């Protein structure tokens, strides 16, 4: 079994505050939120990042913008604005090597290189 942190969250071996789940995607609260709304959206199947997508995971990940838009409404930031981003690799600051998208909102987020 994978020791990957987000694989373990997807398998419910590690608790997380889940806000959305379907067959192939999971969204949960970031444990160290950088904004009033800070959610992580992941494919349940493991891949390290966007360079490692299989066709199956790409099909699941293609739905992430739609899920993010629904979550933005659910969490009250659709009107004020929100950001969806994925860090890939060292220079981007990726720390968990299971593909994930951050959904951030609830305050002015600053320039595109700042959280
Ligand atoms: P990255 O830096 O790889 O783009 O983002 C990883 C994110 O995962 C960080 O924002 C970090 O706070 C979050 N994170 C790390 N460990 C955990 C955890 O155990 N549970 C949850 N919910 N989030 C985590
Ligand atoms: Zn994983």
Number of helices: 3
Rough outline: globular
* CATH-assigned fold name: HIT family, subunit A
In terms of structural class, how would the helical and strand content be classed? alpha+beta
Q: Strand order, main sheet: write it out.
A: 1-2-3-5-4
CATH architecture: 2-Layer Sandwich
What is the CATH level 1 assignment? Alpha Beta
Share in helix: 10-25%
Ligands bound to this protein structure: guanosine-5'-monophosphate, zinc ion
Low-confidence stretches: none
Biggest sheet, in brief? 5 strands, antiparallel
How far is the first residue's CA from the last residue's CA? 33 Å
How many domains in all?
1
Characterization of the model:
- With 115 residues, the protein is α+β, with helices and mostly antiparallel strands.
- The protein has one domain: HIT family, subunit A.
- It has three helices and five strands, in the order αβββααββ.
- A five-stranded antiparallel β-sheet has the order 1-2-3-5-4.
- It is globular and about 40 Å long.
- Guanosine-5'-monophosphate (5GP) is lined by residues 5, 16, 28-32, 40, 87, 93-96.
